[in-house]
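Lecture notes, part 5. Sequence design as translation. It can be helpful to think of inverse folding as translation between two languages: the language of shapes and the language of residues. The source text, in structure tokens, appears below.
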């Protein structure tokens, strides 16, 4: 008599053997881990969103505090900014009288231009105070100082022409980006990047205009002082 029980058991065993052939238990289980150290690396984050213009270091290179790692794209010329940094580091308080104002006036400093203009004006005022002896009124309106101001005006006008040309180009790029963004051709990040560059160029141009106005006002004040001193001498 045929035994169905044995047949069922045999079928189950064969099924288990067949399943064990196709279904395998993994010997390696993939997983994510975080490798750290006692002093984990610091995360460096830029203060502004912009494209990277130049990288000064290599991968896995050791750096120290104060090293320049990279330059982000801006309206400033990074070579001019680095040159200004070297000049500032090389000049102590005792050497500021020989600070190369005419040389630096040709630098493109972008958003730093406003701060530098304030520094340059303060330095020129200090040079006047030191050289012309403000307690000696007849020496206050020195022709040498006026000539220095006029030289600075010439440099600022040249810089204004360059900044104006760059501003016109960035304005056109911004208008094109606005159209492309409206048509959903470019992303909002690309559009905002062009807008930031346009606004920075506008601010840089405005800073130069302010510096020109301040320098022209300084010359006018010196000329008024000369006239006043001349009038005083004629009536004394």
């Amino acid at each position: 008599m045929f035994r169905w029980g044995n047949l069922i058991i045999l079928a189950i065993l064969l099924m288990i053997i067949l399943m064990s052939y196709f279904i395998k238990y993994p010997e390696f289980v993939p997983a994510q881990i975080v490798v750290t150290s006692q002093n984990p690396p610091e995360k460096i984050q830029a203060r502004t969103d912009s494209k990277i213009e130049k990288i000064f270091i290599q991968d896995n290179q050791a750096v120290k505090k104060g090293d320049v790692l990279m330059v982000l794209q801006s309206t400033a010329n990074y070579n001019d900014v680095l040159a200004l940094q070297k000049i500032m580091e090389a000049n102590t308080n005792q050497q500021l009288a020989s600070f190369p104002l005419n040389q630096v006036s040709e630098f493109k400093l972008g958003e730093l231009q406003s701060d530098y203009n304030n520094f340059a004006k303060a330095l020129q005022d200090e040079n006047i105070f030191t050289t012309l002896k403000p307690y000696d009124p007849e020496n206050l309106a020195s022709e040498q100082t006026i000539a220095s101001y006029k030289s600075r005006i010439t440099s600022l006008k040249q810089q204004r022409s360059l900044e104006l040309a760059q501003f016109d180009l960035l304005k056109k790029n911004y208008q094109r980006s606005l159209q492309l963004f409206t048509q959903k051709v470019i992303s909002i990040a690309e559009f905002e990047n062009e807008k930031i560059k346009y606004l920075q160029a506008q601010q840089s141009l405005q800073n130069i205009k302010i510096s020109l106005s301040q320098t022209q006002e300084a010359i006018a004040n010196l000329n008024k002082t000369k006239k006043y001193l001349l009038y005083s001498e004629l009536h004394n």
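The translated text above is only one of many valid answers, since several sequences can fold into similar shapes. Residues 110-234 form one domain.
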